[in-house]
What does this fold into?
Amino acid sequence: MNEEKNVRRGGGILTISLFAAAMVFFFLMGLLLPLRPAESETEKRKLKEFPTASVESVLNGGYFSELSEWYSDSFPYRDTWMELNDRMKDLYGIRTTQIIQGNAEKDDIPDLPLKTTEDAGEQMEEPSGDVTLEEPGDESGALDETQEPETTQEMTTMEPITAQRLGGVFLSEDTAYGIYYFNQGATETFLTAINRTAKKLEGKADLYCMIVPISASFYLSEETLKSTDGSDEKKALDYYYGSLDSSIKAVEIYDILNEHKNEYIYFRTDHHWTARGAYYAYRKFAEVKGMEPHDLEEYSTISFPGFLGTYYNELKAVQMEGNPDTIEAFYPLTCTTMTFTETSGNQLNWPIVNDVSNYNHGNKYSCFAGSDNPFSVIHNENVTNGEVCLVIKDSYANAMIPFLADHYETLYWIDYRSYNGNIISFVEENGVDDVIYLSGIEPMSSTQPMQRLSGLLP
Amino acid sequence: MVFSSLIFVFLFLTLNLAVYSLARSVKVRNVILLLFSLVFYAWGGVQYLFLLLGMSACSWFCAVQIQKRGEEKGKKLWMAIECAVLLGLLGIFKYLTFVLSNLQLWTGFPEVVPRIVLPIGISFYTFQLLSYVIEVYRGDVEAQPKYWKVLLYCSLFHQCIAGPIVRYQTVAEEIDERHVSVDDIAEGIRRFCVGLAKKAILANSCASIADTFLENTASASTAGLWLGMFCYMLQIYLDFSAYSDMAIGMGRMVGFHYLENFNYPYAASSVQDFWRRWHISLSTFFRDYIYIPLGGNRKGQLFTVRNMLAVWFLTGLWHGASWNYILWGLYYFVFLVLERFVLKKILARLPVINHVYTLIVVFFGWVIFKFESLPQLGSVLVGLFAADGRKLWDLTASYGFQNNMFLLAFCVIAVTPLGKKLRDFVYAHVEEGSAGAAVMNVLDAVLPVILLFLSMFALVGNSYNPFLYFQF
It folds into this structure.
């Protein structure tokens, strides 16, 4: 066909005008610095800051690649653009069931428990690698300004563990389940540290160990579990508890959770358990300790609907949005406020159960116990039994704190991912009676947090 | 700077086009292009800019000297100097680490192998400069008397770091005199936006699926490996051709007409056909400057095979300093020899099967290309045939497919000429001035902007934005 006879193509001037308008629009938007967000609510992270230049980074290009990253990472309205992108991705295929493999290596779970003798313990696990000794009084010590007695001589300061990739995720309809991977190295680090601690605390305080399983093994069929290619959670728990020093009081909560699995004990869009799940674990703890737990009916409650947690954040599945989780919180019977110390050293009084109705849909789990801070405490004036408890914890413990609060005159909790200090000395100096190690099983397969924990328990 | 980044599209390119359109004379426009190109290149590290400046200066000088010399001997000398300097630098920056670490492996010497960072785009601009000087040597083009124009030719950000390898004669005249019509600009915009979306949406999505299976090949199932490699095969074409689309599009917007670099290679009917459609600017480079000067196919079968071996060894080597790339080149050499002497006539008589055969050869080619570690490559090849007892199927593979099936179907269509043919068909069947023509014109105008928006959404939160051809 002859060129001249062809219909003119391409839209000509209209194409150019539309393109130019769009380019100028985004060009101007990119220049509006005050509109640039500093952090992302949906991703719960600080966005890239404007980089500072050095001769080296300009020469090797590092500066410019950071600049490019800053430009797009903090682009105005980025959360909105990303949400639109997620909607586009919904069209990629049928996404009712999804599976994301974690990037962790999976180890076989040994059949026999681990032996950690004192000698071996000293040699095996020296968490020196990333522990740096700082001058006493260094500002990074979390407790500088507190009135709490804090006399640890050597301050070990370690970088806080920030958000980490969970194991895998398996999504079925509107419910996501974690895929758990057992890691031998991290497990040995943990067991060595806790057994070493048990020896040090013998005769001084009771040490409890509670490991919170993830929901998958309660709800997924054996067959599905196998095909997701995770490790056997139950077997791992048996290995953990079987390898604990005999002086440690194991709080094995798997069975009691399993009995109540038809209740709302795990979130569908988040990796945590619900407060109701934590309540049954609390009953088990009471049984092991030999104290009388309160009945669930005794508590007054509050609900926060519209919670879309970490799994949602990872998968952005529409069906989860259509059926978000509801957080049910139980108020302690005898106290209402707590005090926490932030990483900056800043100290705040805070409600033990906070009203998060107006929080972003992803941040509602923070209603419990002031969320995750290096150090927190409740002095309960209505309890006069003289008992002092310390919980060494990750975020799973947050939902448990309101129940424990009614049983101790003083309840401390320390987040091993961000606290800096010697926990053994803390226990000795503050007359702690009960030390509870309470953590989810997933982070315990991660080497870095376990090394950090080990560093806090010298 | 990579094309598929917000800072390039909305800051760099917008500024570039705006400033460019304000200038009137071609000289000022060229200076603007040059300055922007130097900034663009410096973005990857200011220190490497000196390399680019130096190599361009050497080529400019050698070309001028060659032009001056009447006698063959002097020409040859300057040609040899040019080759020695450019290939020497390419050798040091790209291959020295590879050569030394192999030497170390066999002889224990040297004790320490220096880690040399590969300057961005060096493989591309070295070849551009070489082709320029060779063309001058052969008398195909006049030497460019102005250094800055040689620099502009070589550093022009449209094609400097990821091709196509533009020959000097393609743009020699357009550097000094070029005209753009409204339709040129509109076509350039369309091409650029299609390329951007191809990269930001399709290639990156395919890449992230491919990575789920290919990052940890030991634990992937057989089905997972196939799916992963299938996505990688889509990704590598979509990614690389997207860069060429964007380069050609940006060239068109300002009046440069670069030659096509891809012609739907996955629609090829033989391996030879594939290489006429894949990275055309590279294959013609090797054809014109290696194969034909060595005698091509005019000196008998034995020489033909030798010449092909040289070309395909070098093609493999050009793609990276690692054994698997060399292996990949030789793999194609074997199939091309086979086709030349045995299969050619048979394939011509097998209409559908020849396409299937080609795709299978290309697929396994990409497997070789993908894994730089030879033991891993071996285990993947065995794993693809389930010969190592790995699981045939797992949930990750079946959901990986199910979750992305529409995307993959779309990508499969996108690598064929179907879309282009459809557009041609509709345009051929509407009358000028009819409603149909108007609708098509509006679609042509709206689609680029829609693609621009969608690409922007995909890039803003995209931590995953690999750039495969940076290193070549």
